[in-house]
């Protein structure tokens, strides 16, 4: 198919909505990463999304709404704690999982009886949902397994010719996917860290369990609370090694071990002090800037055709936990502690 390239101006927002109303699929900007959207209430549209991404059908999609009134029809009930989170953090990078209602097509949930819902902060995303008149199912708009896209160019590199349209809304402001929390069990459980940090969740909930898969590799054969956590993710072609230690230790490790074609994945302030090609992911003590740049940096690593990538270890504080979570997956949990 031929992909139509659209801007985020009003007339193009209407064109994107028309494509979606005609059962097409379109990549749209959100504040986290670009999403690959289709009508969430039609199984046939949802199927097209899985096909375009090459996504395993047991990995469920997030449903995006533009107004709080669209939430209740999608779920069995909205508990008080979920409503309190919505009031505080929606629109924003927070996805909540609850038992699903019957209008959710089975294709969305990958065999689960729950559904993930989020209201994006991006005005373009909400304008498109509004113009459609129905909620949009949207996973990240990358080829399955690749780093998530934070620009329309990233989406084009993966999905040109596989989607009906790509709406260019510029660079995503958060740069890392939403926080995913399940409120379907007895205790709220964080499944994927993101822009809404554990501290921010606890301000409303008092207590949140953090799923083991946030920090650690899933054991062979274990059932993932969030199916997305079990797949190889965010990974460049190169071998990525995370080096945990001081900058001096990192530099020394590279001096001893780096060879031709290897790359340092480091912070902006460090470029001039290292003896090899450097790709940066944000500033050293600034997790927000690290979140914004990590996926673009992982894509650059591929462009360089790097063999081995030596990555700096991010601080796990605040949104840094999300950066850490994505980077350890890109590295296949390969961390060297100095
Ligand atoms: O920021 C975001 O969340 C972006 C933008 C486009 O909104 N979307 C996104 O979607 O990251 P995706 O499909 O790449 O990631 C959704 C994650 C996956 O790990 C999936 O397994 C999990 O959410 N998920 C979705 N529905 C679920 C459910 N019912 N139960 C458990 N996990 C679920
Ligand atoms: Mg994804």
Model description:
With 338 residues, the chain is an alpha/beta fold. It folds into two domains: 4-214, Alpha-Beta Complex (DHBP synthase), CATH 3.90.870.10; 239-337, Rossmann fold (3-Layer(aba) Sandwich). Helix content is 30%, strand content 18%. The chain contains ten helices and 16 strands. The chain has helices spanning 10-21, 43-53, 80-89, 106-109, 123-132, 152-159, 198-205, 247-257, 287-303, 320-330; strands at 4-6, 26-28, 35-39, 62-64, 94-99, 114-118, 136-137, 165-167, 179-182, 189-192, 209-210, 239-244, 263-266, 277-280, 308-312, 335-337. 50% of the residues are buried. The model has no long low-confidence stretch (mean pLDDT 95).
List keywords for this structure.
single chain, 16 strands, 2 domains, binds magnesium ion, binds threonylcarbamoyladenylate, five-stranded parallel beta sheet, DHBP synthase, eleven-stranded mixed beta sheet, 338 residues
């Amino acid at each position: 198919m031929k992909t139509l390239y659209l801007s985020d101006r009003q007339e193009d927002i209407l064109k994107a909505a028309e494509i979606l109303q005609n059962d097409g699929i379109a990549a749209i900007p959100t504040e986290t990463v670009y999403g690959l959207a289709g009508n969430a209430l039609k199984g046939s549209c949802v199927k097209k999304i899985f096909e375009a991404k090459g996504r395993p059908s047991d990995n469920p999609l997030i449903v995006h709404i533009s107004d709080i009134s669209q939430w209740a029809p999608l779920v069995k009930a909205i508990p008080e704690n979920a409503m309190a989170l919505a009031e505080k953090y929606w629109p924003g990078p927070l996805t909540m999982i609850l038992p699903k209602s019957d209008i959710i097509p089975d294709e969305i949930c990958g065999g689960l009886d729950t559904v993930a819902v989020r209201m994006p902060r991006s005005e373009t995303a909400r304008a498109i949902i509004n113009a459609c008149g129905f909620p949009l199912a949207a996973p990240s708009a990358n080829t399955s397994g690749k780093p998530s896209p934070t620009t329309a160019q990233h989406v084009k590199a993966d999905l040109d010719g596989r989607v009906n349209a790509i709406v260019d809304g510029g660079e995503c402001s958060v740069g890392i996917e939403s926080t995913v929390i399940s409120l379907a069990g007895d205790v709220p459980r964080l499944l994927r860290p993101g822009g809404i940090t554990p501290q921010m969740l606890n301000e409303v909930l008092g207590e949140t369990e953090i799923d083991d898969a946030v920090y650690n590799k899933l054991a062979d054969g274990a059932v993932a609370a969030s199916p997305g956590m079990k797949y190889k993710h965010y990974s460049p072609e190169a071998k990525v090694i995370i080096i945990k230690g001081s900058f001096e230790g990192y530099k020394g490790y590279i001096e001893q071990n780096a060879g031709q074609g290897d790359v340092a994945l480091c912070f902006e302030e460090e470029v001039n002090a290292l003896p090899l090609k450097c790709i940066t992911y944000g500033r050293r003590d600034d997790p927000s800037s690290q979140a914004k740049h990590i996926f673009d940096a992982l894509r650059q690593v591929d462009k360089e055709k790097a063999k081995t990538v030596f990555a700096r270890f991010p601080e796990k504080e605040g949104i840094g936990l999300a950066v850490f979570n994505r980077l350890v997956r890109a590295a296949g949990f390969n961390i060297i502690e100095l």
